[in-house]
Structure formats: C-alpha cells, structure tokens
C-alpha cells in the first residue's frame, strides 16, 4: 500500500493523490516488482535536513531521502521523505509544472527502492531516463 502524508499544506487534490498512487503501483509492477508498504512523508527543508544530518551525516538540503525496509527482493517497501520546498524550487528553476516535478521526485524514490542509484554519471543518466519513461506513462 502506498500512502502519502503531508506534514504541511497539501497543494494537490485528492484526485491527483489517487492518480499518483495508482501510477506508482503500475510503475512498480512494470519493473517486475510488487508494492509493499511504501510511505511518503512530505515535509519542508528543515525537516529533511535534520533527517539528512541524523541518518546520513550530510549537511545539505536535498529534495528526497529514501529508506528501504524491504524483506523480500520482489516486494518494494520503504519510507520516502520529500521536501516540498525543494520540489517547488526545482519546478520554478526548471520551468515545469509543480505536479509534474512532484511526480518526478516520487518516481525517483520508487526507483531507489527498486535498486537504481544516481551517484555515478552513467547511473544518473539511467535514472533520469527511467524517470522520463515513467512520467510519459502517466494518464
């Protein structure tokens, strides 16, 4: 089950949330996996910075942090923390719709839970390609 929990004002409609959840589930199935318990926590920069410091010892802002808690390789489970502040800033900077940028970050987290990485240049290219692929499959 995928849940999206906003710790601040939610800029999206319930219909948009349902669309995101269905699309993420379909994307997971398309990767040959099954969705388990996946929780998105939508927060602000300061909340995510504290998680970054506490768990990763990184002292910088980021748009997403993903923690897997899967017990089986076929079932995708975990917690995904998203800074809505970063998503808004990225949408403005890249001149894209906020909903589209939010979806990009959401699928990015799923791809991390599946096992994709984005540290090396080739990994970044692969991750961006997967994001674009799944974004194009949205209804």
**Which percent band covers the strand fraction?**
15-25%
> What spatial order of strands do you see in the largest sheet?
1-2-4-3
Mean pLDDT score: 96
The gross shape turns out to be: globular
Give the count of helical stretches. Answer: 5
How many strand segments? 4
Give a quick summary of the entry.
The mean pLDDT is 96.
What tags apply to this protein structure?
single chain, 139 residues, alpha/beta, four-stranded mixed β-sheet, 4 strands, 52% helix
Walk me through what this model shows.
With 139 residues, the protein is of the alpha/beta class. It has one domain: Collagenase (Catalytic Domain), CATH 3.40.390.30. Helices cover 52% and strands 21% of the residues. Strands 1-2-4-3 form a four-stranded mixed β-sheet, with helices on both faces. The protein is globular, with a radius of gyration of 14 Å.
